[in-house]
Amino acid sequence: MHASTVILVAFLTSVLTTTGAVFVIERLGIFEQAEPQASVPNVRGLSEADARTNLEVAGLVPLVGPREVSTEAKPGTVLRQSVPAGQNLPRGHQVTLTLAEAPPKVPNLAGLTPAEARVALEREGYKLETDDPIPDPEVPAGKIVKQVPSADTPHEKGRTVVVQVSSGPSEVEVPKVSGLGLNKAKEELEKLGLKAAVSWVSRAETATYAVLGQKPLAGEKLAPGSEVQLTVNR
Fold first, then answer.
1. pTM of the full predicted structure?
2. The domain containing residue 192 runs over which residues?
3. Considering the chain, what percentage of its residues have pLDDT values greater than 70?
């Protein structure tokens, strides 16, 4: 074989070998540069803003998932992260955060009627249950005077709130109505939940329909709905 032919064969063999090696390297990615990695920071207990900042500084993308009711964690802080702290991820990878949400609280029902309270509770996701009325000297009869749980207490949605309405004062003090006209005397008694029982008399030189006497006397106490006997001039 001529020397020139030997040189040509050697050259071609070298070219083919080099091309094959490059092809294999490219196919297998033997010398590809490793993708940059980021270490996941621990963001549990941080506020949403601080957690976002820490993840972004590490080269990761924060996402906020559904919030979760918690009685222990401060609302808006991170309860959980989708990737544990210390794990390595490619830069730009997403990490989902679960934030704490304050538990719902029972609304204030004081002074409402049961019908009004039912609407207010259903709007907040609660149910109403009524218990026996209780006397109260200040809250008008038929208005809510007590609720369990009390207003602003954390309470899981779907649960029941028990209320009691006022039956009015257990006893009221009889007012002085002697000397008043009959209509005015009735008005004063009815304000306190008392009733007037009229006995008529006729006295000369006395104003018509004037209350001449009452029983019980002013200052005595009666249960609401009781009668006060009035002696009235006709």
1. 0.49
2. 172-233
3. 85
